[in-house]
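Researcher: Hi, I'm a grad student and pretty new to this. My advisor asked me to get structures for two proteins we've been looking at. I'm not sure of the right format, so I'll just paste the first sequence and hope you can take it from there.
Model: That works fine. Here's the first sequence with its structure tokens right after it:
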Amino acid sequence: MSVGKGRLAELVALRTRLAQEIDACESVRDLAALARQYRETIREIDEIQNGEDGDDRAAELVRRHHQGR
């Protein structure tokens, strides 16, 4: 993981890792769990990038950027 890099960077690293795990997965049961976690991670990344995560510093910067500040 990208410890100390911020929540968005950690989520992106997790997304990459999950994608690798999904590609290598041979168990249907495990694949379902990995796919759920992947979807949740993608949702969180989208929320941060769209400025919907009010408690995150990166989200605040994205909001300011979109507002032209």
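Researcher: Oh nice, that was easy. Here's the second one.
Model: And its structure:
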Amino acid sequence: MHSLQEADQVSYDLKYALRLCSECDHKRACIHIYTTMGLYDEAVDLALQVSTTHGDYLVNVVVVAV
């Protein structure tokens, strides 16, 4: 992930994209969508399932953003 986007800056339906990514087990994409939607708890939980390094990075990004 390079930066956090605002939900109104994307040109796709976030809920639909999240559902598709979840169904296809694209966890990193789900993490990105969660952060875009402002669902930081869900993003961190999933990131920690993917890898502790990714989760630690995301925690730091979210703390700075909030």
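Researcher: Is there anything I should tell my advisor about the second?
Model: You could mention this: Residues 54 and 60 are 10 Å apart (CA to CA).
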